[in-house]
Amino acid sequence: MLVLFETPAGYSLFKFNNEKKFLKTDSSDIHDEFFSSKEKAAKNLELLQFQPFEDTAQAVAATTSLMEGELHASLKNFLKKPLKKASGGGFCIADKALALSIKDEILKKNSSAINIMSGDSKTSELFRGLRCHVQDLLEEKISSQDYKSMQLGLSHSLGRYKLKFSSDKVDTMVIQAVGLLDELDKEINTYAMRVKEWYGWHFPELQGLVGDNATYAKLVLKCGIRTNYRSHDLSSILEDESVEAAIKEAAEISMGTEIADMDIEHMSSLAQQVLSLTEYRAQLWEYLKNRMNAIAPNLTIMVGELVGARLISHAGSLLNLAKQPASTVQILGAEKALFRALKTKHDTPKYGLIYHASLIGQAAPKHKGKISRVLAAKTALCVRVDALSDDITADTTIGFEGRAKVEARLRQLDTGGHVTPNKKLGARTTSKYDPVAAKTAAAAPSYNDASDMVLTPKSSSKKKKKDKKRKSSDSDDEEEKKSAKKEKKKRKAEEEEEDNGEEKKSAKKKKKKKSKE
Asked: Which long-range contacts (CB under 8 A, 24 or more apart) does 216-225 make?
């Protein structure tokens, strides 16, 4: 009985010596009977042939074909000779799909009487025992250390092949970064609001003079109590000298309450938290920009880093976003509004997360829906290029071309022009009357075509339809007239017959009266 076993180092073909005993043994006792020790395994299994892989690429190609149940060319060449020599018996294969492929492509052509065994409990136990002692059985061909290194290298290569792994194209980093960025914005706003409310009891006028959270926190850290503002130089924090003078003047006449040094310490620590979070947010924003330019450069060109990252995060991954049509990309993020509109039978939303793109912000309110539709179509193309292109160096030509087309469409809507996508399919329009051209044409002896009023010729099909309708209506009128004439003739004939009958009856009555007299 032959046993095919695939290893990370290459293909191996074993011969099982006790086939009859193996077939009689119960599946639960096979491991104890034949593979309880390496001596028993070496006694029952004999290595007939071993073919190592030439390189890692061949190993990956052979392994992927085995996983898909296909017969690789190298395995086909490996099995041809031993299967021709085998007169009969069993042939154990671990995978059912591979067993069918070998049966169709090799055994049918050779018309051999080999019985393929695959998928049952006995063969599963056989391969389980073989897997336990494969390094001892292949010790003459390959050392255990080389076997382990080949196993590790093949697993890494196979993982990269299946996932098409690239360290620069990991969209998980973008998803986590944009999620953290949104959370940081919320935390910074919460902490800054708490600092302003807390410090506002002592210096309430400062909040109206300084709007930036980071600048407010820096002033709290540098000065502390409001009486120190006069003695401190605030030019390193504030760029405008008038604002600095207003703050110092407001500090002298402030209506705030007096606070202790312990209160200032806690306010300063909270302001320090605001500054540290703000600095970390700036670092995270730079990291997100670099990642987006590496992962989805065309998407970044179209909608920007933040909107692109939110689209990827909402879709789950860059590949999932690439699978979506342009109509879905347009309303991605507005699912609640969409289903509410469908339920209440109102107008569906025109945009979702894509609304925050700079190109839609430049459009007029009445044109935002049209621009969002055009932008979503170009964005869908850019995402597919970013997700499915195999080139490591990003090609951003599609992104720049798409953005140029959207900007051209935006200018076209702003100027009020109208351009059909194909001039051949565009409807004909009447030319406008130009009075200047008409005067010049009247004064000049030559004929000027520009002064003519050209009407659009109506289609011949419409004329034919109208003629048919007219003819049918005319024929219907004639038929009605004819039928009316016939009815009149019938009525006259009936009336004449009735008059003749009454005259005959009166004549008969007169004759009867005369005969009686």
From this structure: 216/192, 216/271, 217/192, 217/271, 217/272, 217/274, 217/275, 217/278, 218/271, 218/275, 219/247, 220/195, 220/267, 220/268, 220/271, 221/268, 221/271, 221/272, 221/275, 224/264, 224/268, 225/259, 225/264
pLDDT per residue as tens digits for the range 271-306: 999 999 999 999 999 999 999 998 899 999 999 999
Query: Which one-letter DSSP state was computed for residue 118?
Result: -
Output the DSSP codes for 433-499: P-HHHHHHHHHSSS--GGGS--PPPPPHHHHHHHHHHHHHHHHHHHHHHHHHHHHHHHHHHHHHHHH
Say how many C-beta atoms besides its own lie within 10 A of residue 454's C-beta. Answer: 10
Amino acid at 413: L
CA angle (482 as vertex; 480, 487 as ends), nearest 5: 95
**Which residues have C-beta within 8 Å of that of residue 401, sequence separation ≥ 6?**
none
Are 78 and 13 in contact by the 8 Å Cβ rule? The answer is: yes
What's the pLDDT tens digit per position in 222-235?
A: 888 888 888 888 88
Top mean-pLDDT range of 258-267, 401-410, 504-513: 401-410
pTM higher than 0.85, yes or no?
A: no
Please check whether residue 247 is in contact with residue 209, taking contact to mean a CB–CB distance below 8 angstroms. yes
Tell me how far the alpha carbon of residue 10 is from its chain's centroid. 40
SS (H, E, C) 163-225: HCCCCCCCHHHHHHHHHHHHHHHHHHHHHHHHHHHHHHCCCCHHHHHCCCHHHHHHHHHHHCC
The number of residues making up the chain comes to 517
